[in-house]
């Protein structure tokens, strides 16, 4: 038996949801650049779940279904109020609340495709409400109920702040959601597929995926990037900070990628958004620091920014709390997880690889008094 550390380069399934070929990312054959410039997040969800862009009626049906399903059970709100707010990270809170959500869905264990599609809508609609409700509860505020007349992106920002967002914020947030929606067999998507391949339910698959996304080598990197920017504090401090970190062989968050070796196609969109938004907020230093970090890390190590690097200054500029960056990643990526879960169910086989044994040779049991 031979092993590949971290399953690098291993093709573990077929999928038509998204592809990364020669550093080009597509969702169901549509280039991410095209979608980022033109598509709404609602259209992107439809595309991922159905393999085609929706016509007007199909889009309206999905948009209405998402709006209708956005409320969360009062029990989940009460449960969130009992979380230890001074200790709990929002990703842990969201993971727990999403798991609980399954307890309140009578269809949770129904495995018919239509039931699973209904659950997909419920999860996609309710996760933003969970994230924003948690954010408000921990600030001692009441959750803001979802509005049915706002787009998905606008409604999220509205539920977070209680104020209707302006078009610039909505468009930027919509684009960020589109860019994060799916990414082939990344760690959290693989986790979701492994989970449901046992024929476990959709809620379990999404809960497992949230757990995998939480880690700093995956979705957690965007929050870590912002922590680094805050620690550096000023453009003049970038050079000594980054050089010292590289000398100490520390990882610079937001750089490197398992699959892209010549650049993450999503990063350029977020870089541009970061430039624009920091100009608008008058806090250009976050963009300027990021550019300087990129120059040094790319120059010294040949590593390029990934999706998480510029999304940090984008979300900061939208006034979003730093520990909500990764939950926002989940708000978007749940669309991709759900597409992969539906695909896994449609052609399922248990995912059960092997491990090469490297433990001690065969030994005999020794009674406890002889050890
Ligand atoms: N900073 C400094 N050095 C790095 C970085 C980095 N961000 N990323 C990789 N390297 C170095 C490694 O130290 C290693 O060097 P070595 O060969 O001298 O030991 C080499 O590049 C290869 O790196 P690996 O960690 O083996 O690459 P792997 O494919 O396993 O990991 C990963 C990819 C996890 C993304 C890695 O680049 C990393 O940790 N980046 C920082 C965290 C991050 O930004 N994660 C978000 C990824 S995108 C996403 O999940 C949404």
Tag the structure with descriptive keywords.
371 residues, mainly alpha, Citrate Synthase, domain 1, Cytochrome p450-Terp, domain 2, 2 domains, three-stranded antiparallel sheet, 16 helices, 3 strands, 57% helix, binds acetyl coenzyme *A
Number of strands: 3
CATH class of the largest domain: Mainly Alpha
Strand order of the largest sheet: 1-2-3
| CATH architecture heading of the largest domain | Orthogonal Bundle
**Ligand catalogue:** acetyl coenzyme *A
Radius of gyration: 21 Å
- Compressed to H and E, one letter per element, the order equals EEEHHHHHHHHHHHHHHHH
- Let me know the average pLDDT: 97
Helix content: 55-70%
**Class from secondary-structure proportions:** mainly alpha
Reported by name, the CATH topology of the largest domain is Citrate Synthase, domain 1
Can you summarize the main beta sheet? 3 strands, antiparallel
| Overall form | globular
């Amino acid at each position: 038996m031979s092993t590949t550390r971290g399953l690098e380069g291993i093709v573990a399934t077929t999928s038509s949801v998204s592809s990364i070929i020669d550093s080009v990312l597509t969702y169901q054959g549509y280039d991410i650049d095209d979608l980022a410039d033109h598509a709404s997040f609602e259209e992107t969800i439809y595309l991922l779940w159905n393999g085609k862009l929706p016509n007007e009626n199909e889009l309206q049906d999905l948009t209405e279904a998402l709006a209708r399903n956005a409320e969360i059970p009062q029990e989940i709100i009460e449960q969130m109020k009992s979380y230890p707010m001074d200790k709990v990270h929002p990703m842990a809170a969201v993971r727990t609340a999403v798991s609980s959500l399954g307890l309140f869905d009578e269809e949770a264990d129904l495995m018919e495709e239509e039931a699973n599609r209904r659950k997909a809508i419920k999860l996609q609609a309710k996760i933003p409400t969970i994230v924003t409700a948690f954010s408000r509860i921990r600030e001692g505020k009441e959750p803001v109920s979802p509005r049915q007349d706002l787009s998905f992106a606008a409604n999220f920002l509205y539920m977070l702040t209680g104020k209707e967002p302006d078009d610039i914020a909505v468009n930027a947030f919509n684009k960020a959601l589109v860019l994060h929606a799916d990414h082939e067999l990344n760690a959290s998507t693989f986790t979701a597929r492994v989970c449901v391949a046992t024929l476990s339910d959709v809620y379990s698959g999404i809960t497992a995926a949230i757990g995998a996304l939480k880690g700093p080598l995956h979705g957690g990197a965007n929050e870590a990037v912002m922590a680094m920017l805050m620690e550096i504090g000023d453009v003049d401090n970038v050079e000594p900070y980054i050089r010292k970190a590289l000398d100490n062989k520390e990882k610079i968050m937001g750089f490197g990628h398992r699959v892209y070796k010549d650049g993450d196609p999503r990063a350029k969109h977020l870089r541009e958004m970061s430039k624009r938004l920091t100009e608008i907020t008058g806090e250009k230093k976050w963009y300027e620091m990021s550019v300087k970090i990129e120059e040094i890390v790319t120059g010294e190590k040949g590593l390029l920014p990934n999706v998480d690097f510029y999304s940090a200054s984008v979300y900061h500029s939208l006034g979003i709390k730093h520990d909500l960056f990764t939950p926002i990643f989940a708000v978007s990526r749940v669309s991709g997880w759900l597409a992969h879960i539906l695909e896994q169910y449609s052609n399922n086989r248990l995912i059960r690889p092997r491990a090469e044994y490297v433990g001690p040779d065969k030994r005999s049991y020794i009674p406890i008094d002889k050890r």
